[in-house]
Design a protein that fits this description.
158 residues, alpha/beta, binds flavin mononucleotide
Protein backbone atom coordinates (compact mmCIF):
# COMPACT_ATOMS: atom_id res chain seq x y z
CA UNK A 1 0.00 0.00 0.00
CA UNK A 2 1.55 3.29 -1.00
CA UNK A 3 0.62 6.89 -1.61
CA UNK A 4 -1.72 7.17 1.35
CA UNK A 5 -2.17 10.14 3.64
CA UNK A 6 -3.97 10.13 6.97
CA UNK A 7 -5.17 13.71 7.53
CA UNK A 8 -7.04 14.41 10.74
CA UNK A 9 -8.59 17.13 12.82
CA UNK A 10 -9.01 16.54 16.54
CA UNK A 11 -10.10 19.13 19.09
CA UNK A 12 -10.02 16.89 22.15
CA UNK A 13 -7.61 14.06 21.29
CA UNK A 14 -9.95 11.16 20.49
CA UNK A 15 -9.60 11.30 16.72
CA UNK A 16 -5.87 12.00 17.03
CA UNK A 17 -5.46 8.71 18.87
CA UNK A 18 -7.13 6.58 16.23
CA UNK A 19 -5.50 8.54 13.37
CA UNK A 20 -2.07 7.73 14.79
CA UNK A 21 -3.01 4.06 15.23
CA UNK A 22 -4.17 3.94 11.61
CA UNK A 23 -1.17 5.73 10.10
CA UNK A 24 1.25 3.51 11.99
CA UNK A 25 -0.66 0.33 11.12
CA UNK A 26 -0.57 1.00 7.38
CA UNK A 27 2.70 2.93 7.17
CA UNK A 28 1.00 6.06 5.83
CA UNK A 29 2.08 9.66 6.13
CA UNK A 30 0.12 11.65 8.67
CA UNK A 31 -0.98 15.30 8.70
CA UNK A 32 -2.79 17.11 11.48
CA UNK A 33 -5.36 19.63 10.29
CA UNK A 34 -4.73 22.50 12.73
CA UNK A 35 -6.93 25.58 12.47
CA UNK A 36 -5.02 28.86 12.11
CA UNK A 37 -6.70 29.75 15.35
CA UNK A 38 -6.87 26.55 17.42
CA UNK A 39 -10.00 25.96 19.47
CA UNK A 40 -9.94 26.70 23.18
CA UNK A 41 -12.11 24.67 25.55
CA UNK A 42 -14.70 27.42 25.83
CA UNK A 43 -14.83 27.82 22.03
CA UNK A 44 -16.00 24.22 21.64
CA UNK A 45 -18.65 24.48 24.34
CA UNK A 46 -21.75 23.83 22.25
CA UNK A 47 -23.96 24.47 25.28
CA UNK A 48 -23.14 28.16 24.95
CA UNK A 49 -25.27 29.46 22.05
CA UNK A 50 -22.72 32.14 21.10
CA UNK A 51 -19.58 30.01 21.41
CA UNK A 52 -17.28 29.85 18.39
CA UNK A 53 -18.34 26.34 17.38
CA UNK A 54 -22.00 27.32 17.30
CA UNK A 55 -21.33 30.54 15.39
CA UNK A 56 -19.26 28.67 12.79
CA UNK A 57 -21.86 25.98 12.43
CA UNK A 58 -24.76 28.40 11.98
CA UNK A 59 -22.80 30.74 9.70
CA UNK A 60 -21.42 27.80 7.65
CA UNK A 61 -18.08 29.54 8.16
CA UNK A 62 -14.76 28.57 6.63
CA UNK A 63 -12.14 27.74 9.24
CA UNK A 64 -8.68 28.47 7.76
CA UNK A 65 -6.03 25.81 8.27
CA UNK A 66 -2.57 26.75 9.55
CA UNK A 67 -0.44 24.63 7.21
CA UNK A 68 -0.77 22.96 3.84
CA UNK A 69 0.12 19.47 2.64
CA UNK A 70 2.82 20.53 0.18
CA UNK A 71 2.93 17.22 -1.69
CA UNK A 72 -0.79 16.47 -1.94
CA UNK A 73 -0.32 15.54 -5.60
CA UNK A 74 1.68 12.49 -4.46
CA UNK A 75 -1.25 10.85 -2.69
CA UNK A 76 -3.89 8.62 -4.24
CA UNK A 77 -5.82 7.72 -1.11
CA UNK A 78 -6.77 10.23 1.55
CA UNK A 79 -7.97 8.86 4.89
CA UNK A 80 -9.62 11.80 6.61
CA UNK A 81 -10.41 11.71 10.32
CA UNK A 82 -12.44 14.10 12.48
CA UNK A 83 -14.90 14.26 15.36
CA UNK A 84 -18.60 14.35 14.54
CA UNK A 85 -19.81 17.87 15.22
CA UNK A 86 -23.52 18.53 14.92
CA UNK A 87 -24.03 15.23 13.14
CA UNK A 88 -21.27 15.56 10.54
CA UNK A 89 -17.73 16.83 9.80
CA UNK A 90 -16.57 20.10 11.43
CA UNK A 91 -16.30 23.07 9.04
CA UNK A 92 -12.50 23.00 9.20
CA UNK A 93 -12.51 19.67 7.36
CA UNK A 94 -14.40 21.19 4.44
CA UNK A 95 -12.03 24.16 4.38
CA UNK A 96 -9.07 21.77 4.39
CA UNK A 97 -10.41 19.67 1.52
CA UNK A 98 -11.35 22.54 -0.76
CA UNK A 99 -7.84 24.00 -0.55
CA UNK A 100 -6.65 21.22 -2.88
CA UNK A 101 -7.42 19.77 -6.27
CA UNK A 102 -8.51 16.31 -5.17
CA UNK A 103 -10.03 15.22 -8.45
CA UNK A 104 -9.21 11.60 -9.26
CA UNK A 105 -8.27 10.82 -5.66
CA UNK A 106 -9.96 8.32 -3.37
CA UNK A 107 -11.21 9.51 0.01
CA UNK A 108 -12.39 7.48 2.99
CA UNK A 109 -13.44 9.16 6.22
CA UNK A 110 -13.35 7.96 9.80
CA UNK A 111 -14.84 9.81 12.71
CA UNK A 112 -15.16 9.60 16.48
CA UNK A 113 -18.33 10.73 18.16
CA UNK A 114 -20.12 10.98 21.45
CA UNK A 115 -22.67 8.45 20.23
CA UNK A 116 -23.99 9.74 16.90
CA UNK A 117 -23.69 7.58 13.83
CA UNK A 118 -22.08 8.70 10.60
CA UNK A 119 -25.36 10.08 9.20
CA UNK A 120 -24.94 12.05 5.98
CA UNK A 121 -21.28 12.85 6.65
CA UNK A 122 -20.04 11.44 3.33
CA UNK A 123 -22.61 13.34 1.25
CA UNK A 124 -21.79 16.56 3.10
CA UNK A 125 -18.07 16.22 2.36
CA UNK A 126 -18.58 15.59 -1.35
CA UNK A 127 -19.01 19.22 -2.50
CA UNK A 128 -15.64 20.09 -0.92
CA UNK A 129 -13.77 17.51 -3.01
CA UNK A 130 -15.16 17.73 -6.53
CA UNK A 131 -14.02 14.88 -8.75
CA UNK A 132 -12.84 12.74 -5.86
CA UNK A 133 -14.43 9.41 -5.03
CA UNK A 134 -15.75 9.22 -1.48
CA UNK A 135 -15.48 5.50 -0.81
CA UNK A 136 -16.65 5.23 2.77
CA UNK A 137 -17.28 7.11 5.99
CA UNK A 138 -17.67 5.46 9.35
CA UNK A 139 -17.63 6.10 13.07
CA UNK A 140 -14.84 4.38 14.98
CA UNK A 141 -13.77 4.19 18.59
CA UNK A 142 -10.69 6.14 19.73
CA UNK A 143 -9.46 2.77 21.00
CA UNK A 144 -9.95 0.93 17.70
CA UNK A 145 -7.23 -1.69 17.23
CA UNK A 146 -4.45 -1.30 14.70
CA UNK A 147 -5.63 -4.50 13.01
CA UNK A 148 -9.22 -3.26 12.60
CA UNK A 149 -8.08 0.07 11.19
CA UNK A 150 -5.63 -1.64 8.86
CA UNK A 151 -8.31 -3.97 7.48
CA UNK A 152 -10.62 -1.01 6.95
CA UNK A 153 -7.99 0.96 5.00
CA UNK A 154 -6.73 -2.01 2.98
CA UNK A 155 -10.00 -2.38 1.14
CA UNK A 156 -9.44 1.03 -0.50
CA UNK A 157 -5.78 0.58 -1.45
CA UNK A 158 -4.78 -0.82 -4.83
C1 LIG B 1 -18.83 21.37 18.92
C2 LIG B 1 -19.04 19.90 19.16
C3 LIG B 1 -20.13 19.28 18.57
C4 LIG B 1 -20.34 17.90 18.77
N1 LIG B 1 -21.41 17.30 18.16
C5 LIG B 1 -21.61 15.96 18.34
C6 LIG B 1 -22.70 15.29 17.70
O1 LIG B 1 -23.49 15.87 16.95
N2 LIG B 1 -22.83 13.95 17.94
C7 LIG B 1 -21.99 13.25 18.76
O2 LIG B 1 -22.17 12.05 18.94
N3 LIG B 1 -20.93 13.86 19.35
C8 LIG B 1 -20.71 15.18 19.16
N4 LIG B 1 -19.63 15.79 19.76
C9 LIG B 1 -18.68 14.96 20.53
C10 LIG B 1 -17.46 14.57 19.71
O3 LIG B 1 -17.82 14.05 18.43
C11 LIG B 1 -16.64 13.49 20.41
O4 LIG B 1 -16.34 13.86 21.72
C12 LIG B 1 -15.35 13.21 19.62
O5 LIG B 1 -14.82 11.96 19.98
C13 LIG B 1 -14.30 14.29 19.86
O6 LIG B 1 -13.19 14.00 19.05
P1 LIG B 1 -11.80 14.76 19.24
O7 LIG B 1 -11.33 14.38 20.64
O8 LIG B 1 -10.92 14.17 18.20
O9 LIG B 1 -12.05 16.22 19.09
C14 LIG B 1 -19.42 17.14 19.58
C15 LIG B 1 -18.33 17.80 20.16
C16 LIG B 1 -18.14 19.16 19.97
C17 LIG B 1 -16.96 19.82 20.59
Amino acid sequence: MSNMLVAYFSAEGNTAKVAKTLAEAIGADIFEIVPEKPYTRSEINWLNPVSRCNREMLGKKDVPVAEKVENMADYELLLVGFPIWYGHAPNVVGTFLKDYDLSGKKIAAFATSGGSGIGKTAQKIEPFAPGAQILDAKVVSPDESAETMKQWAEQFAD
